[in-house]
Amino acid sequence: MSKMILGLLVGGFIGIILGAWLGYKLNIGRDRRIEFNEAIEPIRKALMRGEYINEQDISILVAKLGRDSKAVLNTYRKIYQPKMNMSDAILRKDIYGRLTCTKEEYEHAMKLKKDAMTSLLIKCKHR
Questions:
Q1: How far apart are CA 122 and CA 114, in angstroms?
Q2: Which of 23, 54, 75, 122 is the most buried (most CB within 10 A)?
């Protein structure tokens, strides 16, 4: 009878330890997810309004999130910036600030901007 009680006590103790460890890990994951969502929200709102994202916005995100911002930073540098720069190069302006590009060039530039913003917005989705 004492072996049965000892087995129950050991099993219960192991269950408590595993439950506490699992709860701790899940709690940390929830806190990291909340922190990510709060840090990414200003960029998401700006992208949804169609505003430009600059290097300063991304550096603030990197300062807040550290390694969790790696995917957003890579997308910004490899996709968003080149497409936005290409779009700005296509949308030439004269000395009065009027566009001097053709309709096809304008449509292509707008498509590039939309693709750039969409790609960054996908990486900035809530977790």
A1: 12
A2: 75
